[in-house]
């Protein structure tokens, strides 16, 4: 008997405004933090000089080509498409009193196009970008003012799209603020842990507040958080390695604990004491934090190991953070260790810890594709990766995990967040553009396109 996924399972994919839209200075859009990172999250923050370019300025030109792209995703049978709203299209500097109508109208058209094909939008309010104006004026999320400005933005889009968008996420990979503070919380330069955690605190309060506002404005809505599932295994069975692994995993679970349980976990207070961190937390903040998310969403690409003696190992670059490699796993061309069973483990861990529905909103393989002379792209390695992860997701469902859907990362090739490369491709749809920005931007179906179409058609039965 074919094993299928639950009825109504949301199959689809995920993209983000700054990695696909381009049109960086069109439609009244302001300058975002992403516009200041031409080399991606791992690169330096670079002030824009007149005439300077950033591959994301055009990206894959989704801003102008979205009707074609949505029709291709619909052809695959997508039930859900996750994308983000660029905050700077709505409030260009972040603190205007009135929103930019042209930006609002763009997302109206995009959501209408998705509705024509019955594709549910899953919308991230902030995916690795914020108005650069708020970095300059308020030191990003370090300034308390940013909380209210974010609320203003969120309220505007909840009201405008209340009939069109029933699934929302607050901040993409909120735990990444610890590793990429400019990308996550708009902090420039080398900053103290005190500053980073104060900014994180403000972002957590803002997240909780907009969850509440969202429910007030859209009664039949579901709004979740978004974590980078940075799961680590102990490198050995030494008790010291086990303890170290627990604390390394808590670093990212901290965010889920606050957003799903409504308060700071006890253990973080010891960490704050030992690192001279004294946060300014008001009584009202504590009340606000009690509003928890409806579901937990996360990205999962890889796993890694932790050790009490990390200096003994050669760490390798993973998704934004570095990890000790697991000798039992193979890695992608970019060194990300491939671990499908880790997805089942993670789903079960999150289910046990939070008892909330889960949503896989990013997973996939970044690889160099070869365009054959006849225009075909045989991406069997990508099919293999996604297949193995979906089989483990199905196992987790059998284990009793409530899984709302699966949205693989980059169903259409896009600009890499980490390295700003086009050659690191995730798509079922190929986009003709190289790392220097050359190419016609023509779209082509890869072999995985037909494969994923069949997975969706059979509700996972074909796996
Ligand atoms: C996640 C981000 O970290 O991983 C995405 O939410 C990103 O924005 C994805 O693109 C893959 O990372 P990269 O660096 O390969 O683009």
N-to-C order of helices and strands: EHHEHHEHHEHHEEHHHEEEEHEHEEEH
What is the SS-derived class? alpha/beta
* Amount of beta strand: 5-15%
The tally of beta strands, per DSSP, is: 14
Spatial order of the strands forming the largest sheet: 1-2-3-4-5-7-11-12
The helix tally amounts to 14
Average pLDDT reading: 96
What small molecules are bound in this structure?
Answer: 6-O-phosphono-beta-D-glucopyranose
The gyration radius over C-alpha positions equals 21 Å
The major β-sheet equals: 8 strands, parallel, barrel
What is the global morphology? Answer: globular
Query: What percent of residues adopt helix (DSSP H or I)?
Result: 25-40%
Low-confidence stretches: none
Spatial gap, N to C terminus: 12 Å
């Amino acid at each position: 008997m074919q094993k299928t996924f639950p009825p109504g399972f949301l199959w689809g994919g995920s993209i983000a405004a700054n990695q696909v839209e381009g049109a960086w200075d069109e439609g009244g859009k302001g300058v975002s933090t992403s516009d200041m990172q031409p080399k991606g999250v791992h690169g330096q923050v670079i002030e824009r000089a007149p005439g300077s370019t950033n591959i994301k300025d055009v990206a894959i030109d989704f801003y102008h080509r979205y009707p074609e792209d949505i029709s291709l995703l619909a052809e695959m049978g997508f039930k859900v498409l996750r994308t983000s709203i660029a905050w700077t299209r709505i409030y260009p500097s972040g603190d205007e009193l009135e929103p930019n109508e042209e930006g609002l109208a763009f997302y109206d058209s995009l959501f209408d196009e998705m509705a024509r094909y019955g594709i549910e939008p899953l919308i991230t309010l902030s995916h690795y970008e914020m108005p650069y104006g708020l970095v300059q004026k308020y030191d990003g999320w370090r300034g308390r003012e940013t909380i209210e400005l974010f609320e203003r933005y969120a309220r505007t889009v909840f009201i405008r799209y209340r009939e069109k968008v029933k699934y929302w996420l607050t901040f993409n990979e909120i735990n990444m603020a610890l590793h990429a503070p400019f990308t996550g919380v708009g902090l420039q330069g080398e900053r103290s842990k005190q500053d980073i955690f104060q900014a994180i605190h403000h972002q957590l309060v803002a997240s909780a507040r907009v969850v509440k506002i969202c429910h007030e404005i859209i009664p039949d809505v579901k709004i979740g958080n978004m974590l980078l599932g940075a799961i680590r295994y102990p490198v050995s069975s030494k008790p010291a390695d086990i303890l170290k692994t627990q604390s390394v995993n808590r670093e990212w679970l901290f965010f889920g604990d606050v957003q799903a349980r409504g308060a700071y976990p006890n253990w973080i207070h010891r960490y704050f004491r030992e690192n001279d961190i004294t946060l300014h937390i008001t009584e009202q903040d504590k009340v606000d934090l009690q509003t928890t998310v409806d579901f937990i969403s996360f990205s999962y690409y890889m796993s890694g190991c932790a050790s009490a003696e990390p200096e003994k190992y050669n760490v390798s670059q993973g998704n934004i953070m570095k990890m000790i490699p697991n000798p039992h796993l193979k890695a992608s061309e970019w060194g990300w260790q491939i671990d499908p069973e880790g997805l089942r483990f993670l789903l079960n861990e999150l289910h046990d810890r939070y008892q909330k529905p889960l949503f896989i909103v990013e997973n996939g393989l970044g690889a160099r594709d070869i365009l054959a002379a006849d225009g075909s792209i045989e991406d069997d390695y990508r099919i293999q990766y996604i297949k193995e992860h979906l089989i483990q997701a199905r196992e987790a469902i059998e284990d009793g995990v409530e899984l709302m859907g699966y949205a693989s990362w980059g169903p259409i090739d896009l600009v890499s967040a980490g390295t700003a490369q086009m050659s690191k491709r995730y798509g079922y749809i190929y986009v003709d553009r190289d790392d220097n920005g050359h190419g016609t931007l023509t779209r082509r179906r890869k072999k995985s396109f037909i494969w994923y179409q069949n997975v969706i058609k059979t509700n996972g039965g074909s796996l």
